[in-house]
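REQUEST ID: PR-0412
SUBMITTED BY: lab tech R.K.
PRIORITY: routine
TASK: structure prediction, single protein chain
INPUT:
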Amino acid sequence: MRTEPSFGIQSSSDIKRSHNSILLICLPLLLVACGFEQYIAKPIDTKAVALKIEAKNPESPQFQQFLISNGFAPEHLPFKQWGVDELTYGALFFHPSLDIARAQWRAAETATLVAATKPISGINSHIAHSNNANEDISPFAFGLSIDVPIESANKRDIRIENAKHLSQIAKLEIAQTAWQLRNLVAQSLYETQFNQQQINLLAQEQSFRQQVVAIYQKRVNLGAASNVELSTAKLQLQISTAELNAVQQNKLVLLARLASHLGLQLSRVEAMPLLQDAYNTSIQSSAGTIQVKPEALNRAALLNRLDIRIALERYATAETKLKLEIAKQYPDITISPGYTYEFGNHVWSLGLSGLLTLLNKNKLAIAETTQLREVEAAQFEALQSNVIAEASAANAKLMQAQQALAQQQKLYELQQYNTQQMAQRLAVGEIDRLELTFSKLEEVIAEKNLALAHFQLKTAINQLENTLQQPINTLITQEKLEALSLNQ
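STATUS: complete
OUTPUT:
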């Protein structure tokens, strides 16, 4: 409550003393005002931003130092080949989406400091002049009071708790963004590797079909083959050539996509030596395909998924909002001490003020936040169910991809054996060169199917890792350690 005392000033010396008092009160406020923050305009320089983007270089000293600080040996830098791990670190350093997530986290951290600030006290002063109806007193009046707000029911602590949960959400979203970048980079690398494998195999297929066309052309010229056979061979050559051209044109598109996921210019990515081992899959071992138990998959997904941890923080935020609304049932109090000097008397006063929340006890706001907490709980349960379903589906696709790969591997090895047999038969004159060329074509087609199976397996692995938000090798190692501990 704001008090407005008034008093009479009986002489000019009293008026001067009162003016001096006002100056003494205002002087500290003027001194404090000297420390105010000043607004400084910071317009966005589009040219500088464009130059900054163009200057991003994977061979820059800043990036090399970033790699060293994250455990890479200096003698192994710069990278001779860029695999999934190397590209992931590149995306973490260069991609702007992480800068956005970090800025949002810093803003959330600042909001935590703001939530911890206590209410600011206020000062009120009043000067008045009457119509001097009673001439025996001075027509001037002066009043001064201070408002000191006091929060009840630990509202400040609840606000701090809520801000900390929001800050943790922003921090987890940084990790979520980083994992999404890893997933995109890995898939882009696998697509680029598969594209290069397709180019190599289609080039071989085109070469063999050209040999077939040349053989048929000679036979047609000698009258040993029909034009229909020659036309069929030429048509198949055209189809192979068209496929090769399409795959070659798609290479630049895939590199541009990878550059986008890395946050680099296309020209930089074109100069990077990407890993081209298209048949390397991290889930294969010398003992064969490793199976991961569904229980281990579900446990890993529920424990490692960042969106589940974010959902838990959102539920905690909903709870703190409910606690705050419950605390608002108890009114905050403002204490307003005042001083009055009137007709030579010194009078001190004390005022109290507060909202009349005891009448309705904030029931509607409490009911609303209670329902919002129930919404968060239902969303968390639905998220867990979706995660388990996604993990099961991803694991099933992985098993299917492994089976397909094993089948294609057998077919390719069988075709290799047949080609070797055909080469031996050609050496002894049992067959002609056309039959051997067709056998080589069949081997190339079998290798194309094998390359596709490897790509599908890598895609399935990447999808499972993205579902678990954990590298599959880490999960396999954990399962092996658990099995060893049980056996002992």
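NOTES: The longest strand covers residues 140-150.
REVIEWED BY: pending
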